[in-house]
Amino acid sequence: MQIKNHYLKKACTWLLPFTCILCSHPSKRNQDLCDPCLESLPRLKQGCLCCAIPLAFSPTGLLCGQCIQKTPPFDVTHALFSYELPITKLILELKFTQALANARLLGELLATEILQTWYKTKPLPQAIIPIPLHPTRLKERGFNQALEIARPVSKILNLPINRTDCHRNKLTTPQSTLLAAERHKNVKGAFNLTGNFTGQHVVVIDDVITTGSTMTEFCKVLRQHGAQRIDVWCCARVG
Ligand SMILES: [Zn+2]
Ligand SMILES: [Zn+2]
User: Fold this and answer.
1) Quick one: pLDDT at residue 150?
2) H helices of the chain, where?
3) Is residue 8 exposed (0-12), middle (13-18) or buried (19+ Cβ within 10 Å)?
4) pLDDT interval class at 153 (50, 70, 90)
5) Main-chain dihedrals φ then ψ at residue 2, nearest 5 degrees
6) Is the pLDDT of residue 224 over 60?
7) Which bin fits 131, alpha (ψ -120 to 50), beta or left (φ > 0)?
8) In a 3-state reduction of DSSP, which class is residue 129?
């Protein structure tokens, strides 16, 4: 059955070529994104080694002032794109019009970068943790975008997704409506973990990192539950 599916898949690719999500032209690649659109995406240049914020003067291997002042609870952040068009469009459509194909595409692009660049010479984490959504938000949206992005990554890298041990128990005001200074207070105590992560190397996935307050709070709790090494993967980073 599996072989049949495999050939069926190949035949479908040939008969029904992929269509680019961004320009609607047929894609010659096995993905909903054509070559010119792939080339035009706003890749994020290597920034701070810990939080990935772009640095004005950035010889590689440097930390930003904030990470030097206060060591974040995560070890490294890998961010693929700068949060600007057309990435903003892909992410907003995903969240607010249920464009789940966008999550698949973003996850596939992340997985390619992870394998070909970020983790070419270092070991992959043991498990993927999509940053949890509060049950009320989950009900409103119908899905957790971080989990939807994590699915193709998990499949391609053959890594398990931990979706049972981490919970968001405080319904917070959307961070996007708050000033940077208020964001930290808003997410404080928002997460509750039931699992034991002692000695584990995990990665947390989110769609966008803005000030990093949510990620910092979540990773702090993960660290308190024993995680030894915490990597962060995100599709886009606000500079
Ligand atoms: Zn295109
Ligand atoms: Zn930093």
Assistant:
1) 98
2) 2-15, 35-40, 65-69, 87-97, 100-113, 135-141, 145-157, 180-187, 213-224
3) exposed
4) very high
5) -65, -40
6) yes
7) beta
8) strand
Query: What pTM was estimated for this model as a whole?
Result: 0.90
Condensed to tens digits (0 to 9), the pLDDT of residues 17-64 reads 789 999 999 988 889 999 999 999 999 987 899 999 988 775 666 899
Domains and CATH numbers, the chain: 1-40 (no CATH), 43-237 (3.40.50.2020)
Q: Which ligand is nearest to the CA of 86?
A: 1
The order of strands in the sheet holding 127-130 is: 76-82, 229-237, 201-209, 127-130
DSSP state of 176: G
Q: In angstroms, what is the span from residue 67 Cα to ligand 2's centroid?
A: 4
d(CA 77, ligand 2 centre) in Å: 9
Contact 152, 104 (CB under 8 A): yes
Residues near ion ligand 1 (Cβ under 5 Å): 20, 22-23, 34, 37
Q: Token digits for 14?
A: 């040939």
